[in-house]
Amino acid sequence: MNIIMVGGGKKILFLTKSFISKGYNVTVINNDKQFCNKLAKRYNAKIVNGDGTKLYILEDAGIAATDMVLALTPKDQDNLVTCQLASKLFGVKKTLALVNDPRNVEVFDKLGVNTTISTSGIISSLIEQKVFVDQITNLIPLEEGKVAVIELEIHEDYPVVNKSLKEIDIPPQAIISCIVRNGNPIIPGGETKIISKDKVVILTLPEIQSEVLKAIAGRVD
C-alpha cells in the first residue's frame, strides 16, 4: 500500500515507523525543512518538503499512485483541502483528516472526507473517565468516537470478582468481549467467571461508559 501523510510532530514519527514496519510505502509531506531532514535520516521513506495543500507538491509526492492520504496538520482547513484535492482531482479512494474543531466533523463528512478523527472528542472521552486512569490500560475510540474499547484490570475488591458474566448487570449497549488471564485471551460465555487480576476488554457506547465502569468496579469516584 502507498500512503501519503501530511503533517509533523510525534504522530507522524510514530505512524511512519508503524507503517514502514508493516511493509507500506510511506511518503511524508511537511513544510518544516528541519523536520524533513530529521525524518529522512531516521526512516526509509520518501520525504517532501512543502505545503500539502499545493497541487505541485502533491504531484511531487506521487499522489497519482497513492492508495491513502492522511491529513494530520493542526489546521482543519488545510486538512480538508488536502483530502479534497486527493479525492476529487487524483481519485484517491481513501482519505483521512484530523479535525481539531469538533464543529467541523459534519462539514468534513458532507464534503466527502472518508474518515474524520476529532481530537477533542477523544480527549473528552478520556477526561470523563479520569477517575479510572490507574485501572484503565487502554481506552480506544472507534468509528470517530462512536464506540469505545476499554481494557480494565480487575481488582479484588470489585463486585464482579468470582461472578459469571450472566450474573453481572451491565447495560445492553455494552459487552465484555474478551478476558485476558495470565497473558492468555479468553473469549467468554455466560458461564465464564471473572477473577481478580483479570483484564477485561469491554465494547461500549461512550455515553454509558460511566455506567458500565460502575457495574464492573462498583464506583465512579
Number of domains: 2
- Portion in beta strands: 25-35%
Our count of helices gives: 7
Secondary-structure element pattern, one letter each: EHEHEHEHEHEHEEEEEEEH
Assembly state of the chains shown:
single chain
| Architecture per CATH nomenclature, i.e. the level-2 architecture of the largest domain | 3-Layer(aba) Sandwich
Q: How far from one another are the termini?
A: 46 Å
Helix content: 25-40%
Structure summary, number of beta strands: 13
Overview of the structural elements:
- With 221 residues, this protein is α/β, with parallel strands linked by helices.
- The protein folds into two domains: 117 residues, Rossmann fold; 89 residues, Regulator of K+ conductance, C-terminal domain (Alpha-Beta Plaits, 2-Layer Sandwich).
- Helix content is 30%, strand content 29%.
- The protein has seven helices and 13 strands.
- Strands 3-2-1-4-5-6 form a six-stranded parallel sheet, sandwiched between helices. A five-stranded antiparallel sheet has the order 7-8-13-10-11, covered by helices on one side.
- The longest helix has 14 residues.
- It starts with a strand and ends with a helix.
